[in-house]
Automatic annotation (TrEMBL):
Protein name: Glycoside hydrolase
Bias type Polar residues, positions: 173-184
Record keywords, A-Z: Hydrolase, Protease, Thiol protease
Bias (Low complexity): 1-17, 87-96
Domain of life according to the entry: Bacteria
Taxonomic path: Bacteria, Bacillati, Actinomycetota, Actinomycetes, Kitasatosporales
Organism: Streptomyces klenkii
One Pfam short name: NLPC_P60
Disordered: annotated span: 1-26, 45-96, 171-190
Signal peptide range: none
Length: 190
């Protein structure tokens, strides 16, 4: 509110002839320019304060979002690590199970071999002698191109088995298959 206030005061005259004087004092009147400046300053202050508050809220939101994202990344990394650990454990369990099955199979074969009846020896003809020769090589290593003793390939073992009964065969399986008398499948018997 802009206005003028008059202040009056009575004084006691020093002499009877003096008239009391009134004194008035005025407060300064704000002109339109000063009022506009004051309003502009207030607006500027409010604007700056609002801008600072908005900026602070934006900073707070950005900081909160950064914390959320970091927590999400940590959780995702932990989940991935747990998933890898579960997969590793499953792979190790599968490998252990496979190894146990293989060991069991080896044990079964070893038991079956140990319990198998001894091959019949002294059968008729050279067929039994060839089979006996081959059985005697059980446990020898396989090595491509080997002709024994101690390591064989398929053709080398066949060649040596037949040689043990005096039959000369060529070295390779292709040549061995066409040597001798051809027998039909219907004519075969144990």
């Amino acid at each position: 509110m802009v206005g003028t206030v008059a202040v009056t005061g009575a004084t006691t005259p020093a002499s009877a002839g003096e008239q009391p004087a009134e004194r008035t004092g005025e407060l300064p009147i704000l002109d339109a320019e000063a009022a506009a400046l004051a309003a502009a300053a207030t607006e500027t202050y409010v604007g700056e304060t609002t801008a600072r508050d908005d900026w602070q809220r934006a900073q707070d939101r950005a900081l909160a979002r950064a914390h959320e994202q970091a927590a999400e990344r940590r959780a995702a990394a932990e989940e991935a690590a747990e998933r890898r650990a579960r997969q590793q454990a499953a792979a190790e369990a599968a490998a252990a199970e496979e190894a146990a099955a293989a060991a069991e199979q080896v044990q079964t074969l070893a038991t079956a071999t140990a319990e198998a009846p001894a091959p019949a020896t002294g059968g008729s003809g050279s067929g039994s002698a060839i089979v006996d020769f081959v059985r005697a090589q059980l446990g020898d290593a396989y090595s491509m191109g080997s002709t024994g003793p101690g390591a064989w390939d398929c053709s080398g073992l066949v060649q040596a088995a037949y040689a043990s009964v005096g039959i000369d065969l060529p070295r390779t399986s292709g040549e061995q298959s066409v040597r001798g008398t051809q027998v039909s499948l219907d004519a075969l018997h144990p």
